[in-house]
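Regression test case RT-17, inverse folding.

Input:
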């Protein structure tokens, strides 16, 4: 009788995939690094009602040898783990109040870097670093614009087609980046987390200190009168974190997992 009971118990354990030595689930494999933009198919996921796109691990060249002095020298940045970034700029509706634009789906602008930082934290996220932002815009192909290497005025909102005005976020979906992020060129500039410091970029050298509320911070993305170079993905501008302007908005990021 005892042997029969033991046999039945063992059979039940096998059918239930029992493991007496380790009950911890095997973690899912991380996303493999990509080596070209075409290797990646956009992944969209909703976090607390906000669409974010996944940015896979991989390497790219940050900066531009032909750009302004603060874009040089170009150098390689690698991401060992994927992360998420908002599919669009944060809107008036998401933020809970209006900036200069009054429509619910226009980007929320006219806010300080500190306000943007705190809002992302309230969502369980953070502002993207400028390296993360540029990688999400350009990818391993090191594109000058989210869509390619030539300015296409039909793929973004800027001075020549929308003077003095922003548009609802995502109104130029064909101008999206390789990960599916929209309006990374045009509409409004976007605060990032990084202090404005010279290249090479090094996330461990203090430029990602979020407690510094006096030193200048970087904003990215391009709009308005800088039509010759400002909409490019490598262009960097800076303001003190207490500055606010109607043409600077933001989007949030979050680590994967």
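Golden output:
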């Amino acid at each position: 009788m005892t042997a029969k009971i033991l046999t039945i118990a063992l059979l039940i354990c096998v059918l239930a995939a029992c493991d007496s030595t380790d009950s911890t689930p095997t973690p899912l494999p991380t996303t493999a690094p990509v080596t070209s933009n075409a290797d990646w198919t956009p992944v969209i996921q909703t976090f607390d009602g906000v669409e974010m796109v996944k940015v896979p691990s991989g390497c790219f060249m940050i900066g531009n040898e032909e750009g302004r002095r603060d874009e040089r020298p170009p150098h390689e940045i690698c991401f060992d783990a994927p992360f998420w970034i908002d599919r669009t700029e944060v809107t008036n509706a998401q933020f809970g109040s209006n900036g200069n634009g009054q429509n619910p789906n226009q980007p929320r602008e006219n806010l300080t870097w500190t306000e943007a930082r705190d809002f992302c934290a309230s969502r369980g996220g953070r502002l993207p670093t400028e390296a993360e932002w540029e990688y999400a815009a350009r990818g391993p192909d090191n594109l000058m614009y989210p869509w390619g290497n030539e300015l296409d005025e039909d793929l973004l909102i800027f001075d020549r087609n929308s003077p003095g005005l922003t548009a609802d976020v995502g109104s130029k979906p064909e101008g999206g980046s390789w990960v599916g992020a929209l309006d990374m060129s045009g509409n409004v500039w976007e605060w990032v987390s990084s202090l404005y410091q010279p290249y090479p970029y090094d996330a461990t050298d203090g430029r990602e200190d979020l407690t510094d509320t006096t030193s200048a911070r970087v904003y990215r993305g391009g709009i308005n009168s800088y039509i010759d170079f400002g909409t490019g993905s490598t262009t960097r501008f800076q303001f003190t974190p207490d500055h606010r302007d109607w043409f600077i908005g933001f989007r949030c990021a979050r680590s994967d997992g």
